[in-house]
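Tutorial, part two.
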Amino acid sequence: MARIEESIEITASPQRIWPMVRWDRVPEWMDIIKKVEFASEEKERIGAKAHWIGEAGGVKSEWDTETTEWEAYERGAWRTTAGTFTGIGSITLSSTELGTKAVFMMDYELPYSILGKIIDKLRVCRAIEKGAIRGLKNLKEMAEKQRERMGGEKE
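Running the prediction step on this input gives:
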């Protein structure tokens, strides 16, 4: 199983960032995620279901998830229930002296042969890592710009 884990420091509170990390908002800041649609009425709870569409390293994927953890302003986690790969993932926000540390984590396994697993390591895994880094930088930029528009008030 491959693991991707990236983090970034954001000069904004977890309360400011949290609405941006809801599953259906992830495509706004992470370009490897093309679309997320909730399949359940309630979106912010354990057991919520969503359908994801993504592309990394030229490989398009679709998968369904179930939310396994949901602690507002702190942590959201999911696991796949169907799709082109098996995985778990999370976003964790923790307060810091300067604002918030955001951590993106994903463990996944693609259904490939030995050759496919080598290709994954050389191409797909690197593309996901780079996409996660770009995504967190975009999230930081969005949250900090929003904070500036709000007058940079103390959060």
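The beta strands are 2-10, 33-38, 49-56, 59-71, 75-83, 86-95, 100-109. In part three we will examine how such features are distributed along the chain.
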